[in-house]
Specification:
Shape: rod-shaped
Radius of gyration: 42 Å
Structural class: mainly alpha
Strand content: under 5%
Number of domains: 2
């Protein structure tokens, strides 16, 4: 084998290695893009979980609403129905009696 043949063989191997390196570079670029996409999805997922915790967490909106509703003064509302409604009906009856006596 002559020196020219060896030189061509070496050049061919270098070209093959160059093509292989270009393929590796393209694969690394794809991996970098996918890594950034995964990182973005992880950030979005973290943001969604924080929003869910704001609503459903231990001190979230639903918990605070449930505590607020649980502290509703049911006994006082019940008293209101037992006192105010009969007074209203009594006032209405008195008003009707006054209208009947004035009209007749």
């Amino acid at each position: 084998m002559s020196d020219d043949d060896r030189l061509r063989a070496i050049e061919q191997k270098l070209d093959d290695h160059g093509a292989t390196l270009k393929g590796i570079q393209a694969a690394i670029n794809k991996v970098a893009v996918q890594h950034e996409q995964i990182a973005q999805l992880q950030r979005e997922t973290t943001n969604l979980w924080s929003k869910i915790n704001e609503v459903c967490g231990p001190n979230g909106l639903l918990t605070r609403t449930a505590h607020y509703q649980a502290s509703c003064p049911r006994a006082q509302i019940r008293w209101l129905w037992w006192v105010v409604v009969p007074q209203g009906l009594t006032t209405l009856a008195i008003g009707l009696a006054v209208l009947q006596s004035a009209g007749g």
